[in-house]
Design goal:
The chain has helices at 9-17, 94-107, 115-123, 182-190, 192-197, 207-221, 238-242, 246-251, 259-263, 307-325, 337-341, 348-356; strands at 2-5, 21-27, 33-37, 62-70, 75-79, 87-92, 124-129, 152-154, 160-162, 166-171, 174-179, 270-276, 280-287. It is globular and about 65 Å long. The strands form 3 sheets. It has a 7-stranded mixed beta sheet. It has a 4-stranded antiparallel beta sheet with strand order 5-4-13-12, with no helix packed on it. It starts with a strand and ends in a 9-residue tail after the last helix. It is 30% helix and 21% strand. The protein has 12 helices and 13 strands. The chain has 2 domains: 2-221, no CATH class; 238-356, no CATH class. The chain is an alpha+beta fold. The structure holds iron/sulfur cluster (SF4) (2 copies). One iron/sulfur cluster binds next to helix 11. The site of one iron/sulfur cluster has 13 residues, from helix 11.
Length: 365
Amino acid sequence: MIKVSEAKLNDVFAAIAAKQALYMPVEKKDGEAEYAQWAEGVEYSRAQNTVRSAKDFFFPKKEDLYEIKGTSKNFKVIDSHEKIEDFVVFGVKACDAKAFSLIDRVYLNQNPVDSYYENRRKHGTVITMACNEAAPTCFCKLFDIDAANPSNGKDGNGKEFPIGDISTWMNDGNVWFEAKTEKGTKLLDSIKAELTSAGADMDAETAPVEKLKDEITAVMDSQKFANQNLSKFTHENLNPIFNSETWKHMAESCLGCGTCTYVCPTCMCYNIKDMDTGTGIKRFRTWDSCMYSDFTKMAAANPRTQQYQKFRQRFMHKLVYYPARYENTFACVGCGRCLQKCPTHNNIIKVIETINADDSIKGDK
Ligand code: SF4
Ligand code: SF4
């Protein structure tokens, strides 16, 4: 494990940024944090969470797919894959890092692979950061996410795998770095000289980090929304949950604004559009939302015409469909963004509580 004084953290950032673009949470004027590129003078924000998640780096809200320039007889296809260069994302919390693995299963672990997402995943190095505190809306513990070991992932069957390339911890004026993958080791090796000249202890004792991990675990154990009962959310209960009368009531106040899907680190739907550039056509994709009225609208009809059906789709996907397909892993990471940002106070905790209170659905009390 490598220990660097927090006062020298900017030297580490400068060393990384000299080789690759470096992004991290940065405080905005309104006090909230968003990811931004590091440059001299940019300060890392220790805010509990960013407004938008880190998924933007691998699944940006708008992404060019390709461009065709010229005429029908003489044209050139420009592939945008080539534009992606190596980059590093620092300060990713365990919840957001787990979310990458949820998207990986859909876009990488089956055919066809999403080559645009794959390209960004290959080029990106993820440096996770342990959370010393939990926001009142955090409930990562519910999904077995270990905020004290932010790069250690686990699926719903208990299988462990890395979700970050380097783990970091910050406490008492020091920052500790621990490589968790080959990519992470390579990055730390590439800045060894700069770490040494920043006075880093390249073989630091781990006891302070172990103590901090125990403290973090105790904090995360007290997350007030993490004690939900998820026993009803099984594949066997798919039909009873889907047919629950409660959806109409729950969705009554949903505006269909899509905010919950845009801030959610695990929402991954997109739409593909073409634009006439004047010299050809550009094909690009943008985030889409299952909460929108025209989502999956087809020539024949729209399969979900009422808002409650769209609302139900979002939560059925996270709590029933996804775990049924992918190793019993829920597609929520308890980041709490939907609790913070829904203008009408709808969120996944309310859905879990409401379904649990529906006695027509079998499950442990
Ligand atoms: S649940 Fe809330 S944030 Fe999501 S679409 Fe409805 S009103 Fe908007
Ligand atoms: S559903 Fe809500 S709490 Fe869960 S990952 Fe998405 S935004 Fe975070």
